[in-house]
Design brief:
The protein has 34 helices and 38 strands. The chain is α/β, with parallel strands linked by helices. Helix 1 runs parallel beside helix 2, helix 9 packs antiparallel against helix 10 and helix 18 packs across helix 33. The relative contact order is 0.05.
Length: about 950
């Protein structure tokens, strides 16, 4: 008896696309079994009586090649479905464990060993691991995103209640094994009449057995995506049986989660595929969905997904197509939305009085015609008398539209892709309708479009609709098959018809209409073949290799490693330019923080210092009276090497040495709650060269600013800075906060500083600043989802509050559309101190901004739903709940309750807030910039005073 029996089926009346290239798929699966590191693994190949000759020949060849490890089972002619074939394989299996593969799926080399070891050690009856599936376009395989949480660690559970993801998602369609004795004991079988029986078999097995082991290893690759358009009915039926089984087991909550997960994993992707399906298949898929989906969309789906599922359940193919466009472009209005009397915006999904789907949270109601993106749906694309005939419809929401008294005109434009050439001409017919704007035009593209030839072979179409002063620009959306019957049209390139002779309309992968210059006639085809030969034969290939080598050498000379070597070897030998200062804030991201305060103090005192500022991407917003250099440019390295002073708040590039004659002032960017430097777990886990590189970078500091003894005990110790390098001056950036607090105490809060007017803030509304901490690590950062629900804040407090959102300078956040004046993104504003000065309340989590804002003596609310996990992961220097300057909210409801009772909260935490400011900002007295300049630039102050005398 073998340890593992891997059942693989060949043929089956419901195999569908799996029957394509069946022999190659079967061969790949069996060879993955033979390649297992666990040698006691056999392949049980079950062949249907109707299997094609190539599949049978491949199976016989594999059995002859490994007679002891490949067994052929010829199914009875009455056994036709895939489920019945799998049951025949289960009956023929002899191994301790049994695993079922669909032809084409491949086991990882150690898959059987990993599953067997987990089963033996845990005594589990079912052992499951991760699997990956092929990309629809033949790209790189990927795992479903939800597997990350389910298989985050290897573990053993006593039932599906401890791992609900096993049955909520299709986690057990492959990549798992059963103890054969348990399968026999529980009578586990595949349903003969179910096309996608693997969807049902796994959850039934997980519910029947006792212990279940989860392994975090990848077990199976090569799983094929189901053809959802063809198999919509079968997929829904399999899901329905799983949901009914959960209900029978007394697990209604899991059934509801399963309904939502199925909608998002299968129905929404089906809707997304509609633009790429022919019209006939769209109608068939919609009709099959209408027959199968009897309950409509489950509760809890996002609005656009709810729209798509609802329209699928109604069998509205045209409506699903519009929903598919909206799913890929949430900011585009793709349907004639209606607005209720209560202001709610709805997507019609049927005839009145059927209820519509609420899509208010998309925010379309806050934009007017000319400001919103509208879907321009192409309804006809054909050739007529040698011209391109186009007809379409621009969707308009019910709450806005063009001025009815203004003349309505439209212009169609074709623009060369990757080029500046464009051709525009007026649309012949434009008319208003109840749900939008319909248009029709004929374009003589043979005469209008004169491409150059080799470069501008693709031209994209877009339309501009004007009504008086307002206008909107739209792409022309179309399903993939709409342009199939249009063209071809004669082309006249400027370089002659040998470069191309035909225009062919087509629809891009992003569902936009475009024109392609092609070669259809023999002279143009021949010319293209000659050009291809000339650019691909051996001398041309050598030229390309030479160009590539030269480009690689130039790239090397432009690389940071080469620049750092040149800088450290040669540029650091240059003499310092006396009186030159290089400023940098947050690695060149902005003109702000303490370096800005010191720069302005130097200018105020009139010191004869030459200032240079570095910027990362754009010089916009940086001072015009300073020299500007881009970070990591040669000018930047030259300025670093020649500067007498370095001033920054984060750290100049670690790999660059500081010249011995240069003074480095590190102002730092905030007091520490989370562990920093060599106290960080991440740094402790680094190897010795990495820690040494950090230590060398820190040893460049000649002066380090601290604002309290807390900084001395935390930051100075964490970076191993000696006492002699510490300057107890406070942070220069906080001088404006101390001045603002004194002004408010003497004159009152209003009027606010000038920035409030520039941002359009209403003096009658309270201003709440939300500034979360940085949650990423080293390397390139991405957009992150904010923990605070901005839209819900706007709905609850929009009438009385304005929310300012400032993402960390190393991150960015995408904000939803909210009512005007309720939410303002201030992430790109250079100086955060100016933002703090106009804010009435701060909402943060673990950011050092709370230490600065406490100086204003204004309310602070900490929204920290993951406080315990964050403190355990990053480490902390004190108990935040014990010392927090305001309430610590763990849930959105607690946060909103604290904001609703702000006056009571302010009074209750007033003394605690002042103690917090005193402890963590003892040296912030409002003159930090002056004292820092006096300490670091004393020689230049003396020269100025001497010159004055």
């Amino acid at each position: 008896m073998s340890d593992f029996s891997c059942v693989i089926t060949g043929g089956g009346s419901d195999a569908g696309d799996a029957a394509r290239d069946a022999a190659d798929a079967l061969r790949a699966s069996v060879e993955s079994v033979l390649d297992q590191s666990l040698r006691a693994a056999e392949a049980v190949v079950v062949l249907a009586s109707g299997s094609d000759a190539a599949t049978r020949a491949a199976a016989r060849a594999l059995a002859d090649r490994a007679p002891g490890r490949v067994r052929l089972v010829h199914a009875d002619p009455a056994v036709r479905t895939t489920g019945a074939l799998r049951n025949a394989g289960l009956d023929a299996a002899t191994g301790r464990y049994v695993l079922v593969l669909t032809a084409g799926e491949r086991l990882q080399r150690h898959a059987c060993r990993n599953l067997w070891q987990a089963g033996e050690h845990s005594r589990a009856d079912l052992v499951a691991g991760r699997w990956s599936r092929r990309a629809p376009d033949g790209g790189k395989e990927h795992e479903p995103a939800w597997q990350g949480e389910l298989f985050a660690r290897s573990r053993t559970v006593s039932g599906i209640a401890e791992a609900p993801g096993l049955v909520v998602r299709d986690a057990l369609v492959t990549g798992f094994c059963l103890r054969r004795e348990a399968a026999l004991r529980h009578g586990l079988r595949y349903e003969d009449d179910l096309a996608h029986g693997e969807i049902l078999f796994g959850p039934l097995a997980a519910a029947a057995v006792g212990r279940i082991a989860l392994v975090r290893r990848l077990i199976v690759t090569g799983r094929a995506l189901p053809d959802r358009a063809r198999d919509a009915g079968a997929l829904v039926e399999a899901h329905r049986r799983v949901a009914n089984s959960l209900l029978a087991l007394g697990l209604p909550e899991l059934r509801e989660e399963r309904e939502r997960a199925f909608a998002r994993d299968h129905l929404v992707p089906l809707a997304r595929s509609f633009p790429h399906l022919p019209a006939a298949r769209r109608e068939q898929a919609a009709a099959a969905s209408r027959r199968a989906l009897t309950a409509g969309a489950p509760d809890g789906l996002p609005p656009l997904e709810e729209v798509a599922v609802t329209l699928l359940a109604r069998g509205d193919a045209d409506g699903v197509l519009a929903a598919a466009y909206a799913l890929s472009r949430p900011a585009t209005v793709c349907a004639p939305l209606v607005t209720d009397e209560d202001g709610r915006v709805r997507w019609p999904v049927g005839q009145e009085p059927e209820p519509a789907v609420d899509v208010t949270e998309l925010g379309h109601q806050y934009r007017a015609f000319g400001d919103m993106r509208l879907m321009n749906r192409l309804t006809r694309c054909a050739a007529q008398n040698g011209r391109l005939l186009l007809e379409g419809h621009v969707v308009l929401p019910g709450h806005t539209g063009p001025d009815p008294d203004a003349p309505l005109t439209a212009t169609l434009e074709f623009k060369a892709r990757d080029g500046a050439r464009a051709v525009a001409f007026p649309v012949e017919e434009v008319r208003r309708e109840a749900t939008g704007i319909s248009w029709r035009t004929r374009a003589d593209i043979s005469a209008l479009l004169r491409p150059l030839g080799p470069r501008d072979t693709a031209w994209d179409a877009r339309m501009t609709v004007r009504a008086g002063e307002a206008c909107t620009v739209t792409d022309l959306f179309a399903p993939q098959d709409l342009a199939d019957g249009a063209g071809p049209f004669r082309a006249r390139p400027l370089l002659g018809r040998l470069t191309g002779d035909t225009w062919q309309p087509y629809v891009t992968l992003r569902d936009h209409l475009a024109l392609r210059l092609t070669a259809r006639r023999r002279p143009a085809r021949t010319a293209r073949r000659l050009v291809r030969y000339a650019t691909h034969f051996r001398p041309a290939r050598r030229v390309k290799l030479l160009r590539r080598a030269l480009r690689g050498r130039l790239d090397r000379y432009r690389s940071r490693a080469f620049k750092a070597a040149v800088y450290n070897t040669w540029l650091t030998r240059l003499p310092a330019r006396r009186g030159s200062v290089l400023f940098e804030s947050h690695m060149g991201a902005c003109y702000g923080d303490s370096p800005r305060a010191l720069h302005e103090e130097i200018r105020r005192q009139g010191l004869r210092l030459r200032s240079t500022w570095s910027y990362e991407s754009t010089p916009d917003g940086f001072p015009g009276d300073a020299r500007l250099v881009r970070r990591w440019s040669w000018r930047y390295l030259w300025a670093l090497a020649r500067a007498e002073y370095w001033v920054d708040n984060q750290g100049f590039p670690q790999q660059l040495r500081k010249p011995a004659r240069t003074t480095y002032l590190q102002t730092w960017h905030g007091s520490a709650y989370k562990r920093m430097g060599f106290d960080e777990i991440r740094v402790r886990m680094q190897n010795a060269p990495q820690r040494e590189r950090l230590q060398k970078a820190v040893h460049r500091f000649d002066h380090f600013l601290v604002r309290s003894e807390h900084d001395v005990a935390t930051l100075a110790r964490a970076y191993r800075l000696p006492e002699a390098r510490l300057l107890r001056t406070g942070y220069p950036r906080n001088d404006v906060l101390v001045a603002e607090r004194d002004r408010c105490e003497s004159e009152g809060r209003l009027p606010r500083p000038p920035l409030a007017a520039r941002l359009g803030l209403d003096e009658d509304r309270a201003t709440v600043l939300y500034a979360p901490t940085f949650r990423g690590g080293p390397g390139k950062q991405r957009r992150r989802r904010l923990l605070l629900d901005v839209r819900e804040f706007a709905e609850r407090f929009g009438d009385t509050h304005t929310l300012l959102v400032r993402a960390h300078y190393l991150e960015s956040a995408r904000l939803p559309v909210c009512p005007p004046g309720t939410v303002v993104d201030v992430s790109r504003h250079h100086d955060v101190s100016e933002i703090l000065a106009i804010s009435d309340v701060l909402v943060t989590d673990y950011s050092s901004i709370m230490f600065d804002f406490a100086l204003l003596d204004r309310p602070v609310v900490l929204f920290a739903p993951d406080l315990d996990a964050y403190a355990a992961d990053r480490g902390s220097y004190f108990d935040l709940r014990e010392k927090a300057p305001g309430p610590v909210a763990a849930t959105p409801d607690e946060l909103f309750a604290a904001l609703a009772e702000l006056k009571e909260t302010d009074t209750r935490y007033a003394e605690r807030r002042r103690a917090f400011a005193e402890e963590f900002g003892a040296h912030d007295r409002g003159d930090a910039a002056r004292r820092t300049v006096a300490a670091v630039f004393a020689r230049h102050i003396a020269q100025r005073q001497g010159a004055g005398r």
